[in-house]
Amino acid sequence: IAQVAAEKCTPVRMFDSSKEMLGRALANCRKDWETKTKRGRMTPQKFQQTMDRLSATTDFTGFNSADLVIEAVFEDLSIKHDVMKRAEEHLPEHAIFASNTSSIPISDIAKASKRPERVLGMHFFSPVPKMPLLEIIVTDKTDPAVTATAVAYGKKMGKTVIVVSDKCGFYTSRVLAFFMNEAALMLQEGADIAEIDKAMLRFGFPVGPFTLMDEVGLDIGKHVTRVMEDGYGERLKVATAIAKVVDAGRLGKKNKSGFYDYKSKKKVVDETVYDLLPGGRDRRHTPESEIQQRLWLTFAAECVRCLDEKVLQNPRDGDVGAIMGLGFPPFLGGPFRYMDALGLDQVIKGMEGLAKKHGDRLAPPESLLKLAKGKKSFYGGKDRWA
Asked: Whole-model pTM above 0.70?
């Protein structure tokens, strides 16, 4: 985040309690900018100017003139509260405090603030220099001027910005949690890891769900899913498969042990992971169309619920967020546009079939049924959803 902000002509002051961590951060920024300079993507003058805009501290010096602070510590509410309280001792009253959280409600984070109206979420996607989306999360107490400032700053950083309301998981993390959890439930039922990933690649996603879990970190996935379970209860029937894999010490790519074998030169599933799961290595074949139908409709249903609950302001934001933040196939136009293209009656038929086979949690949202009954669509002019 600091790297992108400094590169876009914004002075940046990084804080961390560890000098070693700050040193590594500065070195990584410098290395990336040196590479850009060698490749002609940054002039030597721009390189020096960008380096000059970046500084670091272990004691909050310089924060007394900060207009905006972006906190990006681990997803632990007590740690975030501690950082917020310490930072606010040094910040001017007009400063905005933004949390780069992917799952913790901003209203919970803001409880530790002296000025909750100046607190919001700025959820960046990893890797930040490459991912184009910024999800800004606002509470019912967030000052509209604070929201406008955060949106303007996000655009200055070169991001495409969507504004969502504060609810567990917000938009992107919430939809992704239901999508990934459904894939884990399929695995638990005996499906094959490689078949699931290949099916979603052929549907148009850039990576399959299990490849993504390995990339993000299985421990993070487990933590976020548990947070979601607290927020959505029975509707998010959490798969035990991920917890069992994590408890066995498999964290994904970061410790070279996850669903895939990182000792092999080819991308192959680590067959020993099946020993931790129901059914062991005896996997059943699942038709590609069945995998795609179950996972994409789970994704779509949660998008609809986000619109119902006013987490999303409109279908357009849902489509932009899904494509730019979650890897939804861009050629399909986004989940809402794709539902319109297929026809809502067809989408509902698919969801009802899944519910009959796998449980009511996969049933179509009531609002989707009403929309179809009224012969309306998400983008249909006078017949649109609003």
From this structure: yes
